[in-house]
Write a structure and sequence with these properties.
about 45 residues; about 0% strand; mainly alpha
């Protein structure tokens, strides 16, 4: 039973990390694009 629980915890942790990673990518990529855009086209 404990081994099953340990396996479930591994899968759960991997799933959580995957969701966090995908959300971070969705959020960070537009921010990076916007930041690069403003850095490139900022009036001196």
């Amino acid at each position: 039973m404990s081994s099953l629980f340990r396996r479930f915890r591994q899968v759960y942790r991997r799933t959580v990390f995957y969701y966090i990673e995908s959300i971070t990518q969705k959020v960070v990529r537009p921010l990076r694009i916007t930041q690069a855009f403003f850095t490139a086209y900022k009036p001196s």
